[in-house]
Design goal:
The protein is mainly alpha-helical and about 350 residues long. The protein has one domain. The chain has helices spanning about 5-10, 10-30, 30-35, 45-65, 70-100, 105-110, 130-145, 155-170, 175-185, 190-205, 210-225, 240-255, 265-295, 300-340.
């Protein structure tokens, strides 16, 4: 296995590429398409779970390299916003083409912030909900960095997990408050998966310890409990199905930790990983509309329509990745280095759904 940290993380790029493709196939085979196909890839909805585990791993790795909080903040903003803004504008144009009455300046501007829920506005595209989960996690880990608590990240995360579980368990005592908070702070429904990622980082780079293994097991149990407390999986897979998939994702990550996933380092999977952020953001509305137009309007076979939509979304994502995301990151990093004399950490193996 390659010895550099960069190469060791290539498996994560492949994993996020596979997870993104799973989410795409999920969205392209549900609802009216499921009726036409006679089946649906329900399990693809859980792709976000492995995104969150990967994010916990890589974001913790990343923040340990920074010298100042501004380095972390700028690197995250550079990765997220130029691509996100581009994808929002492309999707808004598509929505306007099909449903002009739905698009408004208020909707567009609220979505460009990445936090439309805080303005009482719905997401322009359904997949955007995970971005808020990720951003709140970034703020949480940045706060720990600011209080110089990274060396106690395991203890802090364990306490946070316990508090979150107690909060969920007591929901019957404050139903209105519970519903409001879990909608506005959806990290509360997924935090154990991020914690698992941090623990896997510890296992891989700090050495084996039974306490990490035990805590990973407890994180899985916590994720089992949270199945019907939020997220989207509860609407498509059963409690048992979701739990088995969560166990599978943790086993896959364990194989990564011990160096048994190098077979995933293949050009097609690395390519999917590279474009996964744009693919994730662009596919749902645009792809499902394209499938409908091809199948209903042109009488194209549903399987062929889905394949065409997948190919189109991949091509569009390639364009956004290499003509917006990569140049924007390079430009922002160059500006930051010139202004502050510090080089931002490379984020090519950012590892999250949303890098």
């Amino acid at each position: 296995m390659p010895t550099t940290q960069q190469n060791r993380l290539l498996e994560l790029d492949s994993l996020r590429g596979l997870a993104a493709l799973g989410v795409v196939v999920f969205h392209f085979t549900i609802n009216e398409n499921a009726d036409k196909l006679g089946w649906e890839f329900r399990y693809g909805v859980t792709g976000v779970d492995i995104f969150f585990i990967i994010s916990g791993f890589v974001i913790f790795l990343t923040i340990q390299k920074v010298k100042k909080w501004q380095d972390f903040a700028v690197s995250r903003l550079a990765r997220l916003y130029p691509t996100f803004w581009t994808c929002v504008l492309i999707t808004a144009a598509c929505v306007y083409w099909y449903e002009p009455e739905y698009v408004s300046w208020k909707l567009l501007l609220a979505n460009l912030t990445m936090f439309p829920v805080y303005f009482g506005i719905e997401n322009l595209d359904g997949v955007y909900w995970t971005l808020l989960v990720e951003m709140i996690f970034y703020l949480w880990i940045l706060a720990i960095f600011l209080i110089r608590g990274l060396d106690k990240i395991v203890t802090i995360s364990a306490v946070c997990t316990a508090v979150i579980l107690l909060f969920h368990m007591g929901r019957n005592f404050y139903p209105d408050f519970y519903g409001y908070i879990t909608w506005k702070v959806q990290l509360l429904n997924h935090f154990p998966l991020f914690f698992s990622g941090i623990l896997f980082y510890k296992l891989k780079f700090k050495g084996f310890a039974w306490r990490y293994v035990g805590l990973i097991f407890l994180c899985m149990l916590a994720a089992f409990y949270l199945h019907d407390k939020g997220g989207r999986s509860m609407y498509h897979v059963t409690w048992l199905e979701h739990n088995l998939i969560i166990v599978f994702y943790h086993l896959v990550f364990f194989l990564f930790v011990v160096g048994r996933l190098t077979f995933l380092i293949a050009p097609p999977l690395l390519f999917l990983g590279k474009i996964s952020y744009s693919l994730y953001l662009l596919h749902q509305y645009i792809g499902t509309r394209l499938i409908h137009s091809l199948n209903t309007g042109l009488n194209m076979n549903i399987y062929l329509a889905i394949l065409v939509a997948i190919g189109f979304c991949i091509a569009l994502s390639y364009g956004v990745t290499y003509y917006v995301e990569v140049p924007a990151i390079r430009a922002i990093k160059g500006w930051y280095k010139a202004r502050h004399g510090r080089k931002l950490e490379e984020q090519d193996t950012a590892g999250a759904a949303l890098p």
